[in-house]
Design goal:
It is built from 13 helices and no strands. It has 325 residues and is mainly α.
Length: 325
């Protein structure tokens, strides 16, 4: 229950940070830095909230890893260090990114960052863009200056200055490095833990596979995609799933999911567990009264004194057998 509640808190913090950062937007680097300069307080608050959210993810990742390790001897417990440092790297990266963005926004707004692109290079880029988009679409995009071409050249130079401001920010390097380390760590932590959790029966095949997939998405795309898995995992830990927890949680040991072949064999098993009816023994023959022996199946009736078969005086009447041609 505590791990589930902490997981909910982590998801709320990460989503809240995205909402706070939604006010900072722009179609290019220059517009982004101008928006960040106007909402500098939101940038700092969002980065801190996001860092807290990533730090809280340590609890569910560690809980899932230890739960799977307790049910499988094949897991390498020394990998627990990766589980612990991956959220920490993301938290450091979030704070560094917020500081670097505000630093770059101040530098660009104050005119301290200078472009390295020449006017000739900007003109060349704009002419190429006009040829690719067409004169009509190009004119609709750049309609603020004296001409679309002049407006495009101005914005190209401004974007170059904004890119230089972001690259020259002192916290840009640490933010990029810690983010890359966090992506790799989170992808490994989710992939490794979900794989073994699925094998020992702590996660269903669907959610175990999805956990591995969102781990890869955290490496290639954005780590916020992992919130899909953590929402499910929080519901599982607090016991709010419609079908309840998988049986391995209550058993305290591995309860592997049956393979497709095992499920098919289980469905083809006869009903009543394959037991014979009560009035029959294992051979399927009916039970006889006590003291009466069953006749030999292939034995013929013994002849009487006159040579003909008949009933014995001490037992039940014998049945006549028909001869087969």
């Amino acid at each position: 229950m505590p791990a589930g509640l902490i997981t909910f808190g982590a998801v709320v913090a990460v989503v809240l940070a995205l909402i706070l950062l939604s006010s900072v937007h722009g179609e290019n680097s220059a517009e982004l830095l101008e928006s960040a300069h106007e909402h500098s307080s939101s940038v700092i608050i969002a980065s801190v909230v996001q860092a807290i959210g990533f730090l809280l993810l340590t609890a569910p990742l560690y809980f899932l890893f230890r739960s799977a390790a307790a049910r499988s001897d094949r897991m390498r417990r020394q990998f627990v260090g990766v589980i612990l440092v991956a959220p920490l790297f993301f938290a450091i990266s979030a704070v560094c990114t917020g500081i670097a963005l505000n630093e770059a926004a101040d530098s660009y707004s104050n005119g301290e960052s200078k472009p390295t692109m020449t006017l000739e290079k900007a003109h060349e880029e704009c002419v190429k863009e006009e040829e690719d988009k067409g004169a009509k679409a190009f004119g609709e995009k750049y309609d603020e200056g004296a001409s679309p071409l002049k407006d495009c050249e101005k914005k190209e130079i401004q974007d170059d200055a904004a890119d230089n401001a972001r690259g020259d920010a002192s916290f840009t390097g640490p933010a990029t490095g810690f983010e890359l380390a966090g992506r790799i760590g989170l992808a490994f932590a989710l992939g490794y833990s979900c794989l073994y959790a699925m094998r020992v029966g702590l996660l269903t095949r669907f959610w175990g596979s999805l956990g591995i997939a969102v781990g890869v998405a955290a490496l290639l795309l954005i780590p916020q995609f992992t919130m899909i898995f953590f929402i499910y995992f929080a519901l599982l830990l607090v016991g709010k799933l419609p079908r309840g927890k998988p049986p391995a949680w209550a058993a305290g040991e591995a309860v592997p999911w049956p393979t497709p072949g095992e499920r098919m064999a289980e469905e083809l098993e006869p009903k009543n567990g394959g037991m014979a009816p009560d009035d029959e023994d294992e051979s399927g023959a009916p039970e006889l009264p006590e003291g009466v022996e069953a006749p030999e199946p292939d034995s013929a009736p013994e002849p009487d004194d006159d040579g003909a078969g008949g009933d014995s005086p001490g037992g039940p009447p014998r049945k006549k057998r028909k001869r087969r041609n």
